């Protein structure tokens, strides 16, 4: 393998497709259909992000962290995985989750402010982590369990550059190494942790370099190059499945938007940076690659994005038509069986709900 | 191995042997690991060394390194990975070497393990038993003695168990391991080897959330748990001998959920209550038991509820700890005052 994962290149990230859409490395062996599905998944990720931002502005969704610019980093990590594999990510990983099979409507529910409906299928993806960094340990534990049970499953833990300062992320790398867990740990380095640039998280030149200290092979990858991300993740997954242990991958990408819908990046981020990264956009780069090879054309891409738009709109329509989840649900998901006290507290809530209903009826 | 291979009905009527709490917990761990191969143990020094108190002695030799394994020295890592183990179908029993070090893993316990079921809408669960020794009176270094149970009253999604004797420890641990939700199992260091008790060899389960009436009485109820049960019994004996009062002593056994039914029934009968714990007073189990009495049977009370607890200071250094921990003397004061008309 020409891309054997051994030591991180400190100077230049691994790249297959440069930002002009030209091949500079050996691409993974993928069918045109597979290539198109990656493009489709990146568009779906971007369009869902834009849709939820628009809904938030209209008061139809809660706070949301847009992920425009990071589509390749997300899709390229999720797409090579198998259904039995596990994923634990944070709020900017929904593209990776979707590539793993999580439906558009499941995210819509979460971002509309509802818990996931009981009995819904998580596709082996843990709930989006809020206390960032924490989830990487869960991924390592999931991987350790797979190894203990002898399952043919691996686990992927994803976090951002800010989270790498958390103790849990470093403990996760350490545990993964010590137990030779079939895990992939992905640092999605998008340059910023809200207002803190990557240079203020660590004085190390790269985050991938941290693998050396934990005895975990690591690799620095152009995170806006879908082919490089896909190929590196595939190789890391193969290593994990073969019993060769964990891999650390640092994906260099950029958060084109705000941290969340409640954030204003113009307060802290230089404009020139945005221009620089616009030229390195993951979708336009891959689009050029597909167009140059006649795998896709303008018309085909238009059909693709129109279909995605319809799918997202239909999902929005569907979730907004659902009856609101009963607030009583909280008593049923705290423990497997509600305690006697929770049963009494449920009665209090019912009383309040009844009073509210009576009042509303009076108004009507 | 299968369950059938490891449960031999022939042994189920062997006479009980006298065991320390350490031996009873060790036996319970062994039995549970034999009957359920999903049960795995992880922690610092629990494997080859058998734990710093030898609670896990011999278990790695018996079940192998795949099921009983030492971890790097990282409490958050232990609980965080145990969460992944639990979600992916195992029944981990992580050990935190001393409960005072649990705070290092607090986010993983409180915000992650305790609410994984909740935040995933019931999709993922964390059945695990976090074992940790704690408690004063044995001259441990700083931060080794702290009682942490009260902190977890404010952690919805967790159960908290704290046995006072070898028999209970074995049966409660079996229930904790079987439980579909995360359980904190706190082991009082002073009780580890202080006395032996008849413990049946076969498996038995004591339900969580049930207190035990250790001594029946009609004039006053003392609620205690852990090492404070024997302190309370001694104080009750003293006062009974002096005054002839009939004192009920209840071992709460499960800190969360508290057995409100037993608490209420006893106070309705006796009309007087004293609560004893070595944890600090503020916002602790005593406060919660007092509130339960207030909500359920205030008008049965003949005197205000009294609390005898650790002081609201950090747990002191070894040479000062004897006066920090509730003593039979302090408990007897409270009983006498509460008995006065």
Describe this structure as you would to a colleague.
- The complex is a heterodimer of chains A (364) and B (341).
- With 364 residues, chain A is of the alpha/beta class.
- In chain A, 46% of the residues lie in helices and 9% in strands.
- Chain A is built from 13 helices and seven strands.
- Chain A has helices at residues 32-57, 71-78, 94-99, 104-111, 134-149, 167-178, 210-214, 226-241, 271-278, 282-292, 298-321, 329-332, 340-363; strands spanning 86-88, 155-160, 183-189, 192-193, 196-197, 218-222, 247-252.
- A five-stranded parallel sheet of chain A has the order 1-2-3-7-6, with helices on both faces. In chain A, strands 4-5 form a two-stranded antiparallel ribbon.
- In chain A, strand 2 (155-160), helix 6 (167-178) and strand 3 form a beta-alpha-beta unit.
- With 341 residues, chain B is of the alpha/beta class.
- Chain B is 35% helix and 19% strand.
- In chain B, the strands form four sheets. A five-stranded mixed sheet of chain B has the order 9-11-10-13-14, sandwiched between helices. Chain B has a four-stranded mixed sheet with strand order 5-7-6-12. A three-stranded parallel sheet of chain B has the order 3-2-4.
- Chain B is globular.
- Mean pLDDT of chain B is 94; it is low at 1-11.
- At the A-B interface, helix 5, helix 6 and helix 12 of A face helix 4, helix 5 and helix 6 of B.
């Amino acid at each position: 393998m020409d891309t054997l994962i051994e030591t991180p290149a400190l100077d230049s990230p691994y790249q297959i497709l440069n930002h002009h859409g030209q091949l500079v490395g050996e691409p993974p062996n993928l069918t045109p259909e597979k290539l198109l599905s990656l493009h489709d998944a990146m568009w779906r990720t971007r369009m869902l992000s834009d849709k939820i931002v628009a809904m938030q502005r209209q008061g139809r969704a809660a706070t949301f962290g847009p992920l425009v610019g990071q589509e390749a980093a997300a899709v390229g990590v999720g797409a090579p995985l198998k259904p039995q594999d596990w994923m634990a990510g944070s709020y900017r990983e929904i593209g990776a989750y979707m590539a793993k099979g999580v439906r558009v409507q499941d995210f819509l529910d979460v971002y509309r402010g509802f818990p996931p409906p009981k009995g819904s299928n998580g596709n082996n993806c843990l709930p989006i982590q809020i206390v960032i960094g924490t989830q990487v340990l869960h991924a390592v534990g999931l991987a350790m369990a797979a190894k203990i049970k002898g399952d043919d499953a691996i686990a992927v833990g994803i976090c951002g550059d800010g989270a790498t300062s958390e103790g849990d992320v470093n403990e996760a790398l350490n545990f993964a190494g010590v137990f030779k867990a079939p895990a992939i740990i992905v640092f999605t380095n998008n340059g910023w942790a809200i207002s803190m640039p990557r240079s203020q998280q660590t004085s190390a030149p790269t985050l991938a370099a941290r693998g050396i200290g934990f005895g975990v092979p690591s690799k620095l990858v152009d995170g806006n190059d879908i082919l490089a991300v896909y190929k590196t993740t595939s190789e890391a997954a193969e290593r994990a499945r073969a019993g060769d242990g964990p891999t650390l991958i640092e994906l260099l990408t950029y958060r084109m938007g705000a941290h969340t819908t409640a954030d204003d990046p113009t307060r802290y981020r230089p404009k020139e940076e945005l221009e620089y990264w616009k030229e390195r956009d993951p979708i336009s780069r891959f689009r050029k690659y597909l167009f140059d090879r006649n795998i896709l054309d303008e018309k085909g891409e238009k059909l693709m994005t129109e279909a995605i738009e319809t799918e997202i709109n239909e999902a929005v329509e569907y979730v907004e038509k659902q009856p609101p989840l009963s607030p009583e649900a909280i008593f049923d998901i705290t423990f497997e069986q509600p305690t006697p006290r929770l049963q009494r507290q449920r009665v209090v809530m019912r009383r309040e709900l009844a009073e509210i209903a009576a009042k509303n009826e009076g108004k009507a | 191995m299968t369950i059938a291979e490891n449960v031999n009905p022939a042994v189920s009527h062997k006479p009980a042997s006298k065991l320390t709490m350490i031996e009873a917990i060790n036996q319970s761990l062994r039995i549970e690991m034999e009957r359920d191969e999903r049960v795995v143990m992880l922690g610092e020094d629990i494997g080859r060394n058998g734990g710093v108190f030898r609670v896990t002695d011999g278990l790695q030799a018996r079940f192998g390194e795949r099921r009983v394994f030492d971890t790097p020295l990282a409490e958050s890592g232990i609980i965080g990975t145990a969460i992944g183990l639990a979600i992916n179908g195992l029944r981990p029993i992580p050990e935190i070497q001393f409960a005072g070090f649990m705070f290092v893993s607090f986010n993983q316990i409180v915000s992650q393990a305790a609410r994984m079921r909740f935040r995933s809408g019931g999709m993922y669960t964390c059945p695990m038993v976090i074992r940790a020794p704690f408690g004063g009176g044995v001259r441990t270094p700083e931060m080794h003695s702290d009682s942490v149970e009260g902190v977890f009253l404010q952690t919805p999604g967790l159960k908290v168990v704290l046995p006072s004797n070898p028999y209970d420890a074995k049966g409660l641990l079996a229930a904790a391991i079987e439980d579909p939700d995360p359980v904190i199992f706190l082991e009082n260091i002073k009780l580890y080897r202080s006395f032996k008790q008849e413990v049946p060899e076969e498996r038995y389960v004591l339900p969580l959330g049930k207190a035990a009436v250790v001594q029946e009485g009609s004039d006053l109820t003392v609620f205690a748990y852990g090492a404070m049960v024997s302190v309370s019994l001694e104080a009750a004996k003293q006062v009974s001998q002096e005054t002839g009062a009939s004192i009920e002593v209840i071992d709460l056994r499960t800190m969360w959920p508290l057995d409100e039914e037993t608490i209420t029934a006893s106070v309705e009968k006796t009309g007087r209550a004293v609560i004893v714990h070595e944890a600090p007073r503020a916002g602790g189990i005593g406060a919660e038991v007092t509130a339960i009495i207030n909500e359920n049977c205030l008008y049965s009370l003949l005197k205000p509820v009294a609390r005898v607890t650790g002081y609201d200071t950090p747990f002191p250094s070894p040479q000062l700890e004897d006066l920090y921990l509730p003593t039979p003397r302090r408990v007897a004061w409270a009983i006498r005052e509460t008995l006065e008309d």
